[in-house]
Amino acid sequence: MYIPREFKIDDLKKIMKFVEDNNFGILLSIYNNEIYNTQIPLMLDTENEKFILKGHMARANMQWYRSKDENVTVLFTGPHHYISPLYYKDKDSVPTWDYMTVRMDGKLELMDENETRKFLQEMSRFYDKKWADEGNDKREYYSKMVLQIVGFKIEVSKINAKFKLSQNRPEDMENIAINLETLGDAESVSVAKFIREEIKK
After folding, report:
1. Is the pLDDT of residue 154 over 90?
2. Cys bridge to 63: 6, 36, 70, 73, which one at CB 3.0-4.6 A?
């Protein structure tokens, strides 16, 4: 992943928070020179001071089979927005885009059925505690559905994070944030918030 120095993020706490807040990732792997991708929610955990991503996919999705015990990449993306040259002091500028992304690499290992069930319970409690508290995982239809998925975990071996938030134009960052806030949509306001955090650094 191409990361100019101004946009590189090394703060692990910031990276982990970003992944937890934007955990609908894209799992990428290669098989026979073909790129496979699946978009799935992933949960970030720590085991023995190592970062572990846990997820699941449909058993009918052959990406899990062709990726087991192989190196894979996961991309997490966050808020993003178009940045107009009109926001800059120097009008001889070109349009660009501000965005944030985290890339994690590691080896994909399959979970057994017990690990998968435990993970699914954790995920249900995280996303839908009320449903989980009703004990729906004990129902027959649920047990049948669990057999139709495959759980996996990825021990993260490499992390790259890029927060492109106009840091290369420090003289314009405040005006960029103001203009994005004026637009008022969820994405523009969110990007403006992250730009302001960079201004404070």
Report:
1. yes
2. 36
Domain boundaries, the chain: 5-168
Q: Output the pLDDT for position 152.
A: 98
Fold classification of 5-168 (topology level): Pnp Oxidase; Chain A (2.30.110)
Q: Could you report the per-residue pLDDT of 100-109, keeping only the tens digit for each?
A: 999 999 999 9
Enter the pTM of the model: 0.92
